[in-house]
Amino acid sequence: ANLLWIAEEALCASLPEGWTEHTDAAGNAFYYNAGSGVSSWEHPLDEYYRSLFLKLKKILIDNRAASKVNESALALQCAL
Predict the structure, then answer these.
(1) What is the pLDDT of residue 31?
(2) Please, which pLDDT band fits residue 67 given cuts at 50, 70 and 90?
(3) Which residue, of 10, 46, 57, 66, has the fewest CB within 10 Å?
């Protein structure tokens, strides 16, 4: 399955409420939350999308493994 949609969605994600984007003297983007005083080089939702990707990837891998086990069991049953 194609998980590219996660990266596409992450690239287009709006900033959460309270966050603003800024640029440092070297031209690098960073993010700042005035309410908490937190600043970050990463978009505030990067971790969410990274975690989503890893969870869905694991589900896909587990489903493929389960499918292979089922195929093997079916082949054994048919051979009997």
Answers:
(1) 98
(2) confident
(3) 66
CA angle 47, 10, 37 (to 5 degrees): 50
DSSP assignment of 1-54, as one string? Answer: ---HHHHHHHHHPPPPTTEEEEE-TTS-EEEEETTTTEEESS-TTHHHHHHHHH
Percent of the chain exceeding pLDDT 90 equals 71
Distances in Å between the Cα of 43 and the Cα atoms of 2, 9, 13, 31, 46 are 23, 13, 9, 6, 5
- Contact between residue 31 and residue 39 where contact means Cβ atoms under 8 Å apart: yes
Residue 43: CB atoms within 10 A of its CB come to 20
pTM, rounded to two decimals: 0.73
Q: Which residues have C-beta within 8 Å of that of residue 20, sequence separation ≥ 6? A: 31, 32, 33, 34
**Pairing mode, strands 19-23 and 38-40:** unpaired
